[in-house]
User: Fold Adenosine deaminase-like from Sinocyclocheilus rhinocerous.
Amino acid sequence: AMDTEADLFYRQLPKVELHAHLNGSVSFETMETLIKRKPHLIEHRMTAILSGQRRALHECFQVFKVIHQLVDSEEDILMVAKAVIQEFAADGVKYLELRSTPREVTETGLTKQRYIETIRQCKREEVDIDVRFLVAVDRRHGPEVAMDTVKLAEDFLLSSDGIVVGLDLSGDPTEISISLILQVGHGKYLLSALEKAKNCGLKLALHLSEVRAHGNVFY
Ligand SMILES: CNc1ncnc2c1ncn2[C@@H]1O[C@H](COP(=O)(O)O)[C@@H](O)[C@H]1O
Assistant:
């Protein structure tokens, strides 16, 4: 479709983007590239939510599961992160805070350190965008993983030239088994990790109370 004058105006307007989950910002084009690389993974599975389409919250998280299978190596992450940054820049974003949950994948040799390191490598002088990073904690993985992630984020805070600025708490709040029975993702168990993060100078971004009565509130 042709861009209207207004489209151009809004695209060129300098913007800040403060809430971008890396794997939630994958474009259709990038998805296509990923699917071509691993076509066996996606038969009959929902891989996108089209604009205007209404979806339940848990369906969003199903899409994340598919994306996580498609993006499971350093090479994939580098490709996705570069594309996401490029696309935000093309959209007039001048300051971008990306957040992402570092993952470990034994089969591909991916480690949580390398995951963050890879995002750091995306810095490109020729693209006019300032990119910072929030290390995300997936609440479903419980307090020990949360604490380890905070330690990792702290290491990067001290050594990453200001690229790592904070910690994000996220993860599917609709997973009933976790939030109601095991309760590992309950806010009260994560509080000490969050306090540690705050005390070491990480900024905090928290997803809270997205669903009713699933106990992700702090009390
Ligand atoms: C809709 N509201 C939301 N509520 C809570 N967590 C969300 C979210 N949207 C995204 N995420 C978090 O971001 C991850 C995908 O990106 P990364 O793999 O980290 O880059 C999801 O698995 C979830 O943990």
Remarks:
- The domain at 5-206 is CATH 3.20.20.140 (TIM Barrel).
- The first strand starts at residue 15 and ends at 21.
